[in-house]
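Subject: design request, 115 residues
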């Protein structure tokens, strides 16, 4: 059974930082492209960051310079380091794993940026 379990969300003030983690099981983690997407209230889900099996990263323009994605294949975990958070970053953040035609999603973790 494939599981992607996110953690690390919470309430943070503008300008603050959070690190999200996504622990994967049931897949050969190191061959999967991993990523983070988010969905704000009333909006469509959008890609935030991806990292390939080889470590190549891609970030949405809205988070470049503030967010970093990384992976630890030994721990089957992908991370999203979020710095200088803004109120518009408030959303449920979802972990995604993909390998050719296979795609799996976590259940999400809520990030709220508010003073």
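Subject: RE: design request

Done. Sequence follows.
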């Amino acid at each position: 059974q494939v599981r992607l379990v996110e953690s690390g969300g919470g309430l943070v003030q503008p300008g603050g930082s959070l690190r999200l983690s996504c622990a994967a099981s049931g897949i050969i983690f190191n061959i999967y492209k991993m990523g983070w997407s988010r969905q704000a209230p009333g909006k469509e889900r959008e890609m935030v960051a991806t990292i390939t099996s080889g470590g190549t990263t891609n970030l949405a323009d809205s988070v470049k310079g503030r967010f970093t994605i990384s992976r630890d294949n030994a721990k089957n975990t992908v991370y999203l380091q979020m710095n200088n958070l803004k109120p518009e970053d408030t959303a449920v953040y979802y972990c995604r794993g993909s390998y050719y035609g296979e795609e799996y999603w976590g259940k999400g973790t809520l990030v709220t940026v508010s003073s």
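The chain has no helices and eleven strands.
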